[in-house]
Amino acid sequence: MLKVSRILQADASSVNNFVKEAMRILDPEGKYPMPVIKIVNLSGTRWLGRCTSTTSTVGSTINSVSSVIQLQQYILADDTTLQKVISHECCHHVVISNFCVGQDRKTSLAAYDRDGGHGPSFFKMASKINAVLGADFVTEHSDESYVLTEGTEVYLFMWERSPGDILYCWAARPSAKQITYVKRRKCDNPDQYKLTKTRDPHLQPHNCRIGDGWVVEKPGPLKDSLKELWDNASDLTEQLADKQPTFTIILKQGGGVINAWKADKLTSRIQDSLKMRFKESYEVRTLKSQDQELYKELEGFSSLRYRGRQPGDYDKILKLWDQARPLAYTAA
Ligand SMILES: [Zn+2]
């Protein structure tokens, strides 16, 4: 049974049917488990769907691959888009399963990495779908085309750099770091900054989150509507609650030793570097935490191994290891 959370029954049945249809084409013998579907609502991301796969091993052999397909909630409004995105993500699930299930962990994951996210094996699967559902139904980018919807409400942080000249950046759910940034700026120069909310998708460019930099608009309607917001909106800085920052603990085990690091965010760059450096000879797991004491104890990601300084440190790291999950492979 598919697990479909947080969506209406009618949508759930389309989602179910599209997954079953794609899997019937891609895996006619039903060798692999159905992917689990999760509906998400993440603004500011380019993907409409995303497939994250986790391998489980017995000895050095991978015995199963389970995948979670995340779908942006707003694509439920359009059945064709929904089916295209689901079919695309199912191709990723079957490709990694074909590479890994029943195979040696090191060599099969290395072969999967070499094939690339949208490599020959992906296109082989895509062509099976396209033979049934039509040419170009699944392409390399068929999970990125936009469906127009009303924008999501986000925080907009404005800076009046000089009179009438408003710059901005934004965030959907500000992180602890972003909240600190907003509050510090606002505290130092209260008259120059204002935090408000907007649904205007034009004010949510891909690359200008709070703390990353500022958008400078050219004169035009968008600049005018910014000025209007600046003049009329009330400031929401005080409404932002302080947050305990979440971070990721990265653990690797090999040769009887567990090493641990922290990363503020498990970016795809860090995941790639972990795969490059460690996947061949170590098992890598990750764990999210808000334990600020532990944050201080763990060195930065680029630094060397965790050294137990106190008796009992190793027990602590073993406990973390047990709670952590295998490093997942994410393909958009
Ligand atoms: Zn893809």
Write a structural description:
- The protein has 332 residues and is α+β, with helices and mostly antiparallel strands.
- Helix content is 36%, strand content 23%.
- The protein has helices at residues 9-26, 79-100, 105-115, 120-133, 176-188, 221-232, 268-278, 292-297, 313-323; strands spanning 36-40, 49-58, 61-72, 154-162, 165-171, 193-198, 215-216, 247-254, 257-263, 283-289, 325-326, 329-331.
- A hairpin with a 2-residue loop joins strand 4 (154-162) and strand 5.
- The chain is built from 9 helices and 12 strands.
- 29% of the residues are buried.
- The longest helix is centred in the N-terminal third of the chain and has 22 residues, at 79-100.
- Bound molecules: zinc ion (ZN).
- Zinc ion is lined by residues 88, 92, 117-118, 143, 331-332.
